[in-house]
């Protein structure tokens, strides 16, 4: 089926849907189907609002918990970096102290 065929089917579905809603209102004619399509739509939309709010709330909680987890991991990484730097500085100090001690021993031997 070509693009034109799909467009025609889309237009037909659009017109039928609009006709059904207009039929339930029945401003200029008497309703043909006898079904309150617009009222049913309102019931569906109003019934889905609480579920939609629950889903949005769950999504927000999930995002914030994930952000909290990421912040905690970032803090742990920063602490590990700081600890590593402190250990490296401590090792350098130890090596310097050992070198000074060896140099003093050599001077005493001479």
Low-confidence stretches at least 5 residues in length (pLDDT < 50)?
none
- Count of strand segments: 0
- Please, how many domains? 1
Hey, roughly how much beta strand do the residues contain? under 5%
Distance between the termini: 101 Å
As a percent range, the share of helical residues equals over 70%
**Looking at the structure, what is the overall shape?**
rod-shaped
The number of helical runs is: 2
Largest sheet: none
* Mean pLDDT over the full residue set: 87
The secondary-structure class comes to mainly alpha
Element-by-element helix/strand order: HH
Radius of gyration: 38 Å
Q: What's the structural blueprint in terms of helices and strands?
A:
Blueprint: H1 3-25, H2 37-109
Quick tags:
single chain, rod-shaped, 0% strand, 2 helices
Detailed description of the structure:
- With 110 residues, the chain is mainly α.
- It has one domain (3-109).
- The chain has two helices and no strands.
- It has helices at residues 3-25, 37-109.
- It is rod-shaped.
- The model has no long low-confidence stretch (mean pLDDT 87).
Summarize this structure briefly:
This protein has 110 residues and is mainly alpha-helical. It has one domain (3-109). It has helices spanning 3-25, 37-109.
């Amino acid at each position: 089926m070509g693009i034109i065929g799909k467009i025609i089917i889309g237009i037909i579905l659009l017109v039928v849907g609009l006709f059904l809603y207009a039929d339930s209102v029945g401003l200029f004619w008497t309703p043909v189907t006898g079904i309150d399509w617009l009222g049913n739509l309102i019931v569906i939309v109003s019934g889905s609002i609480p579920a939609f709010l629950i889903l949005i709330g769950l999504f927000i909680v999930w995002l914030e918990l994930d952000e909290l987890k990421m912040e905690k991991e970032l803090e742990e990484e920063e602490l590990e970096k700081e600890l590593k730097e402190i250990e490296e500085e401590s090792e350098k100090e130890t090596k310097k102290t050992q070198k000074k001690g060896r140099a003093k021993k050599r001077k005493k031997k001479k």
